[in-house]
Amino acid sequence: MSHTITIKNEADTQIFAESLADFIAQQDTGFVIFLDGDLGAGKTTFSRYLLQKLGHEGAVKSPTYTLVEPYTIADRAIFHFDLYRLGDPSELEFMGIRDYFSGNALVLVEWSEKGAGILPEPDLLLSIAHGSAETERTIHLSGQPHILQLLGADVTAVAHD
Amino acid sequence: MRILGFETSCDETGIAVYDNEQGLLAHQLYSQVKLHADYGGVVPELASRDHVRKIIPLIQKTLAEAKTTAEDLDGIAYTRGPGLIGALLVGSCVARSLAFAWDLPTVGVHHMEGHLLAPMLEDEIPAFPFIALLVSGGHSMIVDVQGIGRYKVLGESIDDAAGEAFDKTAKLMGLDYPGGPLLAKLAEQGEPGHYKFPRPMTDRPGLDLSFSGLKTFAANTIRANADDPQTRANIAYAFQEAVVDTLLIKSKRALQQTGYKRVVIAGGVSANTMLRTRFDSELKKIGGAVFYPSLGLCTDNGAMIAYAGMQRLQAGQIETDNVRSLPRWPLEDLPPV
User: Fold this and answer.
1) Which of A82, B5, B187, B288 has the most Cβ atoms closer than 10 angstroms to its Cβ?
2) Which residues does Fe cation bind (chain B) (predicted)?
């Protein structure tokens, strides 16, 4: 099961990221999102809207150099990873990667393919690709079937906005 | 006073000896860039393993070049943070072990303080207060510097660092890692006026910066145009121009806001030729002055850590036995000297 939605511009990205944030806020267990897409696809923009809607005030810095930026919002730990510079997935073990996926933490991972084999399965995988127009993007959603089912209505709403 | 300084916050192992009367006696740098080029980035675990391998021979080489022995030293400074934790721990463990063996005081230095004081190692040094523009692969910030340890961050990047935007745009253009300097080289062949990149966040008040959107704009521009060398060079030129222009607009705004006349630019991006040319001429026009480290001291290095550490040791800021490396460490938390 999967969904594909088309996003026309940044305002659409915001609507989509915010509706997803509302959905995630209702999940009281740990939640893992992989966010894949080329350089310049809009992963940073998406992450910013998502984290801000979840309640983070201020900047959402690129985790490229630090690998992970931690946040705490309403007693929930949020970890924003960017594995762009990772050479080998096994290096995640050296930074104690398993400790991040515990409790009700929300883990957002950009460039997840660089951690393949070590990272757990995501609840949701978003693949962002450039569309035909300059600001257009297609977002392919896959992941855990029950999550996709729950998301279905919201996602369709965004797609047809 | 003579200080041995270690920098190991990311992918450069930098060792230096600084003497307050004789200046910089020696500095050695081992860059892991080649190692990381194979991987397309800095690999944290490789970074720390490589620091372990290189740091002792580099210390020996630096001390020999400075004609300095343990008896001549008055202290050891090392980078305490911010940075990659594994890499920071190597510097701190070696510094503190040697200090224990040689009975010397140590001081943990803030990496960004090292950068913003790096121009103090030159002949012509800026007087306080000044605006510091710190631009590297991991950081972009504008700081009000009233004195050593008296810092107020006026603005910083809300997403990508300036150097990161250079590196990633270079990658979009198919250049090798680390692409920033290669992109600047390509831009030298570019002609102005072909493309107009946005100047992010200059149309609104404030001193925050944003470079993530430029990368997206570059991706779109590359896709929409031909794939020949001249087009690529023209795009590189327009990208670089946009970054430099944005930094210039924000720096001038910071001068206006504070009433200061001097700007210090440090960090890897401060080695950029177009940036230096533009800042030199534009600041001259408004009666200001701009200061940079020499090219060899723009990127991470041990000399800036030795210098910054000396200022703190001279002020009696010797650390206790119980210290931790700090991967995150706000610049404004530092005590004044």
Assistant:
1) B5
2) 111, 115, 300
